Amino acid sequence: MLFKGISKEFSLLNEDQYNTIGDFWDEMASLYGLENLQGLGYKWADSKIFYAIGLKNDDIKYYNLCLELPDENWTVVNGKTENLKEIYDEIYKLGPLKYEIETFDENGKCQIKYYR
Q: pLDDT per residue over 22-32, tens digit each?
């Protein structure tokens, strides 16, 4: 699977990524619509994460990330966006991730696919 998107670096300090990545989502959703987007978390370090947003079914214009991802062996978790922190707390109990792909809808639902 090939992921093309706009990538930025975000701080993980004080769990600030929930706000700053949320702002990134809001910005991109205003341009492309929330339900057309998917977010990719990758390349974690001690205090930062790289995160990209791309389109589910098309290539986003002016992307700065093109990354080949595995086609198989992803784990899928469905939940509510309001519970995102708790969902991730459960996911990370089993160890670090190599990749995560998030999608959200207008009804407050989210899906997280992750790969270790």
A: 999 999 999 99
